[in-house]
Amino acid sequence: MTPQSAAPNAPRLTEKELLEKEKKYCSWGDTVHYLEPPKFFERCEGSNLYDREGVEFLDLQMWYSAASFGYKNERLGNALKAQVDKLPQLACQYLHSEKVELAEKIGKSMERLFGEEGRVHFNVGGAQAVEDSLKLVRQHTKKNLQFAFMGGYHGRTLGASAITSSYRYRRRFGHFGDRAHFVPFPYCYRCPYDKKPDDCGMHCVKQFEKLFETEYNGVLDVKTNESEYGAFYVESIQGTGGYVIPPKDYFKELKKVLDRHKILLVDDEIQMGFHRAGKLWGLANFGVTPDILVFGKALTNGLNPLSGIWAKEKLINPTVFPAGSTHSTFSSNTLGTALGLEVMKICEETDFETMVFEKGKKFLDRLKSLQKKYPKVIGDTDGLGLALRMEIVGADGYTPDRELCDRIFAEGMKGDLDLGGGKKGGMVLDVGGYYKNVFTIAPNFFITEKEMDLAVDLFDQLIRRTTKDRAR
Amino acid sequence: MTPQSAAPNAPRLTEKELLEKEKKYCSWGDTVHYLEPPKFFERCEGSNLYDREGVEFLDLQMWYSAASFGYKNERLGNALKAQVDKLPQLACQYLHSEKVELAEKIGKSMERLFGEEGRVHFNVGGAQAVEDSLKLVRQHTKKNLQFAFMGGYHGRTLGASAITSSYRYRRRFGHFGDRAHFVPFPYCYRCPYDKKPDDCGMHCVKQFEKLFETEYNGVLDVKTNESEYGAFYVESIQGTGGYVIPPKDYFKELKKVLDRHKILLVDDEIQMGFHRAGKLWGLANFGVTPDILVFGKALTNGLNPLSGIWAKEKLINPTVFPAGSTHSTFSSNTLGTALGLEVMKICEETDFETMVFEKGKKFLDRLKSLQKKYPKVIGDTDGLGLALRMEIVGADGYTPDRELCDRIFAEGMKGDLDLGGGKKGGMVLDVGGYYKNVFTIAPNFFITEKEMDLAVDLFDQLIRRTTKDRAR
Amino acid sequence: MTPQSAAPNAPRLTEKELLEKEKKYCSWGDTVHYLEPPKFFERCEGSNLYDREGVEFLDLQMWYSAASFGYKNERLGNALKAQVDKLPQLACQYLHSEKVELAEKIGKSMERLFGEEGRVHFNVGGAQAVEDSLKLVRQHTKKNLQFAFMGGYHGRTLGASAITSSYRYRRRFGHFGDRAHFVPFPYCYRCPYDKKPDDCGMHCVKQFEKLFETEYNGVLDVKTNESEYGAFYVESIQGTGGYVIPPKDYFKELKKVLDRHKILLVDDEIQMGFHRAGKLWGLANFGVTPDILVFGKALTNGLNPLSGIWAKEKLINPTVFPAGSTHSTFSSNTLGTALGLEVMKICEETDFETMVFEKGKKFLDRLKSLQKKYPKVIGDTDGLGLALRMEIVGADGYTPDRELCDRIFAEGMKGDLDLGGGKKGGMVLDVGGYYKNVFTIAPNFFITEKEMDLAVDLFDQLIRRTTKDRAR
Amino acid sequence: MTPQSAAPNAPRLTEKELLEKEKKYCSWGDTVHYLEPPKFFERCEGSNLYDREGVEFLDLQMWYSAASFGYKNERLGNALKAQVDKLPQLACQYLHSEKVELAEKIGKSMERLFGEEGRVHFNVGGAQAVEDSLKLVRQHTKKNLQFAFMGGYHGRTLGASAITSSYRYRRRFGHFGDRAHFVPFPYCYRCPYDKKPDDCGMHCVKQFEKLFETEYNGVLDVKTNESEYGAFYVESIQGTGGYVIPPKDYFKELKKVLDRHKILLVDDEIQMGFHRAGKLWGLANFGVTPDILVFGKALTNGLNPLSGIWAKEKLINPTVFPAGSTHSTFSSNTLGTALGLEVMKICEETDFETMVFEKGKKFLDRLKSLQKKYPKVIGDTDGLGLALRMEIVGADGYTPDRELCDRIFAEGMKGDLDLGGGKKGGMVLDVGGYYKNVFTIAPNFFITEKEMDLAVDLFDQLIRRTTKDRAR
Fold first, then answer.
1. B121 contact residues in A (CB cutoff 8 A)
2. Is B177 on the interface with D (CB under 8 A)?
3. Cβ within 8 Å, pair A174-C175
4. How many whole angstroms separate alpha carbon B133 and alpha carbon B157?
């Protein structure tokens, strides 16, 4: 009934042909382009991508943390294939066991880590999960307005763009009536208040606290202790913002202010979730419990766009958030939940927390050595788990050097670095940060020490190639 | 490196156990619940779903048209598996051939059907593609406000909810500053203006046209011919609205008004696209060309949430909509594009247009016979291609009977109908329509005549079971 | 202490000098300009304006009904002067007797006419009173969105512009997130549904009612009977819209729909209040009670911009709307309340209802005779009380003829018409209506029969001057 | 024709009767109530108010600066009466000489003080003038969003409330889609950044400047230097915020940042305009030129709510802001413009700048002596011209003591203070400030030294009455 075989395969198109078609038929607006023309890849495995000529690239970004468990992870591939052969499709108004089991595993993780009961709600794509969280917040607080961080990123739907700091994401798209109030993030290396972490006394939290001091500061009706803002959206470690790690007690102090004025805390773990920062959820490193937690990306190791939120029972129980409150065709699609369930099983069977902290420490040590070697190129290195950062700076050791950062990135994409053993290859990096001068390094969790050594060696090659006079 | 085998499988959970977990850990708000408790399914194939006891259900909704090419379509399953083994993950800022080839095929389909050049832009989930279209509209027209149809459905993100008619989708979620102006759809069986299609002279378009007659009608600055509304969002055949089919010339007349005032036409083909209504795109049945077309669902036969938009070159070329205009981690994920490409190949190799129109005619003939048999139960049957509708009404043959519709649906889910040959089974239906009294019938494109006969026989059984005194 | 005398008066400026200064220092955007250059006036009295050369103009618009009680009404002038000498200034947080007495008189008028208790809340300028009413509506209904009429006018603040139909008033000023949904007004002479009043069965109300039929019509959550719209803003007789008078039972039928869905009725009496349409409040002609009533203009006969709202006790009592809910420096300024109080006293002492209905009938009779004489120029005449309308049309007797209307208006301003007795003079008219082809005639309540005769004679002169071939 | 005499006057109502009527018929929401019940006044003259028993109250707030030129100023009263007898009413689409002459005088004042050409646009009520300015800003910048100060006050229409800091003014009235971003004002006595003015290096401006440093700070698209905010709304000296006077160079530094990013400066002079702070416009003390200036209140010495804006020619010339751009019935009402013109003449004839600075210095010296006497009661005194402030604090000399401030105010209203010469009387004060602990002192410009002495003596009496243990 179904045609079982395709027409004989057309001859493989050349890259030039593909680029011509891309130039004619593809929107360029659906993602960023850091290279012109963009690079094609054809295969992937473990920590590596391979281009159409078979050249190997060591990858230090793992699809912005979506493929944390390694490219082409065999176990997860098999889980996907098994569901393809069992129940590949089902309208989400009907149930299938994997959905329920996955929800339970996530729910139990929250009970274990935060001691809170709640429920899990699925969707596809991180931004749609953020939109679901906005619905919960708007319903519960009766407020359209949210706090969020400068440097924060929560997606690019209209609703998510309103709480994502960059005005560039909104500028061309009309008025945003629900635009968030953006609060400086504790980016201590470049403190927004020009303080030093040692003696600032958490000045940034105090500045935030001041907003609530009188009605004339604009956000609180002091008479009723009612805030104009429903929730504070946070990434525990800023992703696109440059893997910025806040002081250990920051969120504890911030949460006190939020609690005082009944403002919800929404924790966006789309990039840091699933052990990127050591613990299952990044915020668990900071001693506070979110009211809502948003996850995606590595939930399926990138094999399905499944995303979701967990929310406290009081916010999401069926009395307040009944069936039909929202909907998405693919919300708990069977392939995605089967993958998510397998990822959660892997997480139960493997002590990723220990493993990621250990590997992270080793990687960071190597980066710090590199920084010592190139103080006029690398201004800051930091990391929590395998969320690592390296800030490229000017010869003064501090001023952001975006242009150099771009050149290092582009050089890595050429594929002619020395991989050792006579092999030529490249390195795939990701650039982020307020000044676009930060390498946000998110390696495969199964990266080997040898690969770490290689990574640092490749950085060394790249720095030498791109800077002449900055070696000390 | 990756653990290759999971722990020995835990014993299979009972349905009761699963339901308890679902009750504790799952949000009920992420989809609709028509049954209490919802039904579990475990396998699917062709036109059938199978529950945990192996009972067979004939499916007439195919995941709301997401699985139009049949459950567990082997060729598409193989395409997915092949990509799992080749390039299952890749950050979308890098290119892979399947993305480009799929964009080209969709672009060329637009050139062929509408004679228009444009580009394709991917995302995941229909609502996110709708959000992308809103960005294009808001940028091009400098307008936040849109027209859309009463009965229209475009998704449940905040932005999509603003242009989706049902106020229930907005009520609990605060103020929507970009709420659309909703225009009556030409639902001729229940004409919103109480006209008859034979002699109404397309009264509904004339009413819409009147909005532009003077500045005091509220939407046009007559002096500058500038409209307050940027685009009109349409489904050529309303999906959730009850598979309502407009008069043949409706869109042609509507488009004249839109063109006169430079209002864009955005065609949401998420449910009707990929031949559901015979032609590749539903709107191609009606002789007008959209400015933007949104697609999703059957693009991958439901195996990946890939979605996207096509837009005219002037709206989306890189000069006006450059790289970085928007972004989504999974936008053109490799598994989705490989599936989309295979679906487009199948569509090229098979004359679905002819096949779907023929099957649709046969199915509709059977439904019309049934209507003749039960005029006090079935008020209207209609269809275009394999988008079919059957309206359940009261004994007067016209008043919507939602309660009976619900009972027929629920009875079908019991799984104890006579499938013939001594086999017991059920039928999975979908309910839609303004009054929730319409079966929106979207069968597998490969449905056999025998299955059609069975479907009608099962309807007959269901009507007899649920109505006593209405057989004539 | 205060300098008691000014410098010796500067010589009187010529009109040319004034126009040059106006061209340099005056914004033209603060009102309409129908004449280029605009005309200067220097004195007024009774029904007449006088220009700088002393030429007399019969006025048929009385400052759009602000000066209904006659220009330079001596009694009111004396009341103003008396307050200037007693308490010309006082911060509104302190009380003065006139405020209280005026509020009482208005409150009692509502008890008498509508049988409802409520309170009066002052402000200055009609639009600010409308803004106050919006606050009450938004607080009580928790809804930002309102219904209002096509052709309706409620002022030009941003909030009032959002509920005023003309898009021209919004176009250049960004996005209006609270834009009303505009409903066709029962403008039966040009029925928006092309019906005839005799047998339409109040089709327009039925169309409005349909909005509430299913959730898919976009404005009602049928499950909770909660509407997306808080209130319906109406003018009982449209002012700027062209003095359009609805069918007698229209508002009764409309109110039933509103009551069913708990939608408030806000009655804007800024132009029709204080007996313009015979009864104290225009809506009192139509048998329904408003939830909020807005007034202004003739409250002080134009001698002070005092305005205000009356609202039902449940909406405005101090428990729900306490001190400090809003504020305006001049809200109940002493000069305005003294004038308002004197106007209310005059209204108590004079049977304006009878007087205005009688004079209105006489004036309308004269206009109808004129219409009979010029059927190719005058398409419709109508009136309620002294709110009269005359629609200028093309030779077909129906098509709006804005250009002719403008010419008649301009000709009247020339000041060279024959006033009788050898005197030359002019006539001041106001143009309104959806097509800007309606003379909205609002004479001084003390207009004499002789002045009415003169008015019609002047119209006759104007028509003869401006049309050659349309006399029949 | 007009009834010339009213019915014989009803007997004068008692205060008790009036209060009962007020309780039944008056909204309490249209202004603040600091006293319960509010106090009635019946006459005013010079610097004094008189209650219904004839008790004299020295007034130090002059209707929040609306009656700066003295209560019942005879020359202005005569100007009003003269216009009542000449042209008391005229539709604003027609011109009268006083409008033009007043616009010229204001326009020329701007040329003189700031060297800028522009135009004047009238309206009534300060908030409506603010709304007009918002229209200019929204049109010119294509931006709905504005910056404004914490502690700033610009009125209470919905649009003005969106840029006025206090959330209490918005809380009950739904979502405000155009809510401003509020920036800390340089309130150095209680520096929002805990800095000291001597060595802060204008830290507050630097913090504001940081917002524009990267796109991730949320307000600037660095690539296009386009800001998300159209204008910055300022009061040069905060009115309701507590007569807070910024450092001399503050606005110069702020303006540099605004100019760099093409953000307009809108100067709200409603309270400080017309010499309250010495110069004709408050901002003229600070060396920067506004793009738009808003005025009201003292323009007519409170005898008419006339208000208006002046804007630079490029923002308001008829090409960009033509006739009909906005409208208000009373916009340039003849009584208001006659009064405004007379006020401007008085300002030309009197050197108020010198006079107000001198009297202000004398008054402030007296307040500072009082502060020295009561350091545990008075925390700060400051002033510019006759805009003076006195901050009531706790025994620590710094903590705001709102409760004491309220008691002093209430005690002053009792009318039993010793006025000297055996006369008993009271003092009318106004309370403002972020913590509601500031007396904002705005005396009559013609206040005598004797009255100043009396004022300070009355303060002394009030402090002694309300504090027992805080005299040192």
1. 26-27, 29-30
2. yes
3. yes
4. 13
Q: Which residues of C touch A178 (CB under 8 A)?
A: none
> Measured between beta carbons, which residues in chain C are less than 8 angstroms from residue D30?
92, 121-123, 132, 325-328, 331-332
Which one of A42, A103, A158 has the shortest CB-CB distance to B131? A158
Across the interface, whether the CB atoms of D103 and C3 are under 8 A apart is answered: no
Nearest to B90, CA basis, from A303, C367, D335, A376 = A303
Kindly determine whether residue A174 and residue C177, on different chains, have CB atoms separated by under 8 Å. no
C139 vs A218, C145, C147, C234, CA distance in Å? 19, 12, 16, 19
Average pLDDT value over all residues in chain D: 96
Per-residue model confidence (pLDDT) at position B34: 74
Residue with tokens 């609530």: A212
Residue of chain B minimizing CA distance to A87:
B43
Nearest residue in chain A measured CA to CA from C177: A177
> Is the pLDDT score of D284 beyond 70?
yes
Among C189, C203, C248, smallest CA distance to C434 is for C189
Count of CB atoms within 10 A of residue C54's CB?
Answer: 8
Instruction: Answer whether A65 touches D (CB < 8 Å).
Output: no
Task: Tell me the C-alpha distance between D143 and D86, whole Å.
Answer: 44
- What is the radius of gyration, based on Cα positions, of chain C? 23
User: Would you give the DSSP letter of residue B95?
Assistant: B
Q: Cβ(A320)–Cβ(A141) under 8 Å?
A: no
Q: In what order do the strands lie in the sheet with A387-392?
A: A378-384, A387-392, A438-441, A431-432
Q: Is the pLDDT of residue B3 over 70?
A: no
Q: Is B302 in Cβ contact with A7 (below 8 Å)? A: no
Taking only the tens place, the pLDDT of each residue in C109-157 is: 999 999 999 999 999 999 999 999 999 999 999 999 999 999 999 999 9
In Å, how far are A405, D211, D286 from D195, measured between CA atoms? 37, 19, 21
Residue contact B216–C150, C-beta within 8 A: yes
Closest by alpha carbon to C434, among A185, B168, B205, B210?
B210
Identify whether the C-beta of residue A163 lies closer than 8 Å to the C-beta of residue A188. no
Cβ proximity of C184 and B252 under 8 Å:
no
Smallest Cα–Cα separation from B208: which of B254, B165, B241?
B254
With CA atoms as reference, report the closest residue to C281 among C231, C311, C233, C237.
C237
Say whether D328 and C87 touch across the interface (CB within 8 A).
no
The identity of residue A468, as a single letter, is K
Give the CA distances from residue A279 to residues A111, A113, A249, A273, in Å, rounded to whole numbers and listed in that order. 14, 9, 16, 8
CB A425 within 8 A of CB A55: yes
Task: Tell me the residues of chain B between 211 and 240 that have a Cβ less than 8 Å away from chain A.
Answer: none
Nearest to B289 by CA among B321, B313, B325: B313
Chain B nearest C-alpha distance from D175 (Å): 6
Q: Nearest residue of B to residue C436 by CA position?
A: B214
**Encoded tokens for C130:** 């409308």
Tell me the angle at which helices B334-349 and B74-84 cross, rounded to the nearest 10 degrees: 150
Q: Is the pTM above the cut of 0.95?
A: yes
* CB atoms inside a 10 Å sphere around CB C188: 20
In the numeric block, the tokens 């300002």 are attached to D347
Q: What is the DSSP letter of A240?
A: T
- Name residues whose C-beta falls within 8 Å of residue B308's C-beta, 6 or more positions apart in sequence: B106, B120, B121, B122, B123, B129, B294, B295, B296, B299
Cβ atoms of D232 and D147 within 8 Å: the answer is yes
Contact B167 C228 (CB under 8 A): yes
**B73-110: pLDDT as tens digits:** 999 999 999 999 999 999 999 999 999 999 999 999 99
When mean pLDDT is compared across A50-54, B28-32, B340-344, D14-18, the lowest value belongs to B28-32
